[in-house]
C-alpha cells in the first residue's frame, strides 16, 4: 500500500494545475490513476493518513478530494473497511426519439430486468396530478412506483400516475406498464419529456445504491394517446453514472434554405 501511495501521489505537486487548490489537484491525480489503471475497480485507496504524508498535505484536504470523488461515483466508501475504486459500469444509452418502456429498452440490450415495487395504489390526486391528468378533486389517481433494476444494478426510480379510469387496478401491472396499457387500448403514442440534473437525496440514493448527493437525471414525462388525451404523468430519477440520453438533431428545411449552404 505504501508503494501505491508513492506511485499515485508524488505527482500531486507536479500536476499542470498549479493554480488550482490542492484538493482539486489531488482529486485530478486520483482520477488519472484510475483512468490509467494504476488502481482498478475494487482496489483499496491508501488511508487518508498515508496520502497526507506522501503528498505533504493536510488530512482535511485529502478528505475533501476523496468526498468529491465519492459523490462523482469514482470511489466508494465502506464503513469500517475503507475507500475503494468503484466498479466500472457500462453506461446505458437511450434514444429520446422513441417512446418505449424500460422493460423493452433493457430487453433489446439483452439485459435481465426486474423491479422492486415501492407503491401500487389508488389515492386522491395531488394538485400536480389533477392539473396534468385533468382530474377533479373527487376523482382518484392510480400510482405505480418502483425501483428498476437491470442485471442486478439499480438504474432508475419510476413514479407513474394515471387516472383510475385508465388503470382501475394498479396491482394488475406486473411487468411493463405500457404492456398493461396496450391490452386495454390505452398505450401512449407520443410523449413530452423534460430532463434536468439534480443531486440525489438520501432516500433515493439509498434505493439506487449510490452516495447521497450523487448526480442524477430527473425526467418528467407527460404521455398522450393518439386522440391527444393525456394518459400518463411520470416522474423518474436515473443514475447519472449509468445513463446517457441521446437525441438526433436535424437542420430544418427553412433554416437550411435561409443559410444558403
TrEMBL record:
PROSITE patterns: HTH_GNTR. Pfam families: GntR (PF00392), UTRA (PF07702). GO terms for molecular function: DNA binding; DNA-binding transcription factor activity. CDD domains: WHTH_GntR. Residues 20-88 form the HTH gntR-type domain. It comes from the Bacteria. SUPFAM superfamilies: Chorismate lyase-like, Winged helix' DNA-binding domain. One of its GO terms (biological process) is negative regulation of DNA-templated transcription. The keyword DNA-binding applies. Keywords: DNA-binding, Transcription, Transcription regulation. This is GntR family transcriptional regulator. It comes from Neomesorhizobium albiziae. The lineage of its organism: Bacteria, Pseudomonadati, Pseudomonadota, Alphaproteobacteria, Hyphomicrobiales.
